[in-house]
Design goal:
The protein is an alpha/beta fold and 160 residues long. The protein is built from five helices and six strands; from the N terminus they run βααβββββααα. Strands 1, 2, 3, 4, 5 and 6 form a six-stranded mixed β-sheet that branches. Helix 1 runs antiparallel to helix 2. The radius of gyration is 14 Å and the shape is globular. The two termini are 16 Å apart.
Length: 160
């Protein structure tokens, strides 16, 4: 299995749109551009359908839109740091850290594994959030996730 997140799946302070639909569309297109999905529009539609069922904004400026989709070839995590943030329905306001999780529709456990590896509740830790919102250079998310995938500790979460 390849890396779940690569530099090509990271968007830092790029204009992805002013609403969650535009951000989802942009991140889904990025997943498709890497060859991890056969159709970015189909993936975006599946993520949007899931988002309509239950908004994915979390306290602390975080959103985790996600879906299983027949368009997805392998489990993937795309990340965007947004300036300004976009409303994903969190009670405390817009999200500036967005993690789009895409998994094949035949791999329910793979989808859950990505969610587990991300450990959304750990994103609230001050050090993880600080590293992801740094405005200089690339955030350490990809490196930390790769370390976690190999069984090491990372500030975003721990691999199981």
């Amino acid at each position: 299995m390849s890396e779940i997140i690569t530099p090509a799946l990271v968007s830092l302070d790029e204009p992805l749109g002013t609403d969650k639909r535009a951000v989802i569309d942009a991140l889904a297109a990025r997943v498709a551009a890497t060859g991890r999905a056969s159709d970015g529009a189909a993936l975006a539609a599946d993520v949007w359908k899931r988002e309509q069922t239950d908004e994915t904004g979390l306290p602390g400026g975080i959103a985790i839109p996600h879906a299983k989709s027949p368009a997805v070839r392998e489990a993937t995590l795309a990340f965007a740091r947004l300036t300004p943030g976009v409303d994903f329905g969190a009670p405390d306001g817009p999200a500036d850290l967005v993690f789009l999780i895409a998994a094949p529709d035949t791999a329910a456990e793979e989808h859950l594994a990505v969610l587990s590896r991300l450990h959304a509740r750990r994103l609230h830790r001050r050090t993880a959030r600080r590293d992801l919102t740094r405005r200089r250079g690339r955030p350490r998310a990809g490196r930390r996730q790769r370390r976690a995938d190999r069984g090491g500790r990372c500030e975003i979460g721990r691999a199981h």
